[in-house]
């Protein structure tokens, strides 16, 4: 097991190095940040002074080496725009994104599992066809279009919910959260729903498939033979069996939701890291862009590493193949 974990850690370090190089070159090629940061009438002396203060005069290999040697020590540079450490800027916005992603995952489970169970126990019925059609819409419609429709219906036409911003936050268990105030809670509903729609469709399909594969198994027939009711069989025995792959998939999707919340946060002006990265790209704020992508990449690697380790613990054949 130690060799397996060490090998995965070395692979993770290699992936981070390659990612940092690709991202650094990509951000460097986008343009000169001085064109954004300085006014058009700035003198050559002012440009030279700012370029020197931001280390932009150094050759690209020197800039990359300076960045990577500092990043190893936890210093990803200072934001050109905010004049603060890039990691501080990112971690300041990260709680808002985590709150949005966590809420969308809860909605996925609360809505997706019951609908998947209903579709699974009534295959090829009108109810099943209706639910599966809805799940196809959740998968196929573009996320930005779904967001605009939610704003149009619930914010513009009906006027029930606010369409932008995080609203007022409060303190709960020492954390600033939207759940602590009614204004913050209602501001959370539309963006969380928008981010959850594709995940709800995924949970419906996983649950439906799991129910159809599990119901014909012997332990279900045995439970029926013992006189156990269909409701208890479905919600206790079958649900317990199919929850393992559903939770596993959603755990892996957690990282994807953080990375791809960019669209939702931009549409709803949600002050998370997704909106931050869009603003940083517009302003050519290289330290924030590179640090953000490396943080997200590291998060993906850690999640996949944890999943791989858990799988290897559960199934020694996987560990044997990896070694």
From TrEMBL:
Domain ABC transmembrane type-1 as annotated: residue spans: 94-311
Keyword annotations of the record: Cell membrane, Membrane, Plasmid, Transmembrane, Transmembrane helix, Transport
Protein location: Cell membrane
Chief location of this protein within or outside the cell: membrane
Membrane spanning stretches: 12-31, 100-121, 141-160, 180-204, 242-270, 290-314
CDD domains linked to this entry: TM_PBP2
Membrane-topology annotation of the record: Multi-pass membrane protein
Family as reported in the entry's similarity comment: Belongs to the binding-protein-dependent transport system permease family.
Name of the protein this chain belongs to: ABC transporter permease subunit
């Amino acid at each position: 097991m130690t060799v397996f974990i060490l090998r995965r850690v070395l692979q993770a370090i290699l992936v981070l190095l390659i990612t940092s190089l690709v991202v650094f070159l990509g951000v460097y090629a986008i343009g000169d940040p001085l064109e954004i940061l300085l006014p058009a009438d700035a003198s050559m002396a002012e440009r030279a002074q700012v370029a020197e203060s931001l280390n932009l005069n150094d050759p690209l290999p020197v800039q990359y080496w300076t960045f990577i040697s500092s990043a190893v020590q936890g210093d990803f540079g200072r934001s050109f725009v905010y004049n603060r450490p890039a990691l501080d800027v990112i971690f300041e916005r990260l709680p808002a994104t985590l709150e949005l992603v966590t809420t969308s995952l809860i909605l996925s489970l609360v809505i997706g599992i019951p609908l998947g169970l209903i579709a699974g126990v009534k295959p090829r019925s009108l109810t099943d066809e209706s639910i599966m059609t809805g799940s196809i819409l959740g998968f196929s419609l573009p996320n930005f279009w779904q967001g605009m429709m939610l704003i149009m219906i619930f914010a513009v036409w009906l006027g029930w919910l606010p369409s932008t911003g995080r609203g007022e936050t409060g303190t709960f268990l020492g954390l600033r959260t939207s759940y602590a105030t009614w204004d913050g809670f209602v501001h959370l509903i539309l963006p969380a729903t928008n981010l959850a729609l594709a995940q709800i469709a995924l949970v419906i399909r996983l649950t439906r498939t799991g129910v159809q594969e599990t119901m014909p198994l012997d332990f279900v027939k045995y439970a029926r033979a013992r006189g156990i009711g269909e409701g208890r069989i479905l919600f206790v025995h079958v649900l317990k069996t199919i929850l393992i792959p559903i939770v596993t998939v959603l755990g892996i999707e957690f990282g994807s939701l953080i990375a791809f919340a960019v669209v939702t946060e931009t549409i709803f002006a949600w002050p998370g890291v997704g909106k931050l990265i869009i603003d940083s790209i517009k302003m050519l704020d290289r330290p924030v862009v590179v640090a953000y992508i490396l943080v997200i990449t590291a998060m993906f690697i850690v999640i996949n590493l944890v999943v791989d380790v858990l799988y290897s613990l559960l199934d020694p054949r996987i560990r044997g193949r990896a070694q």
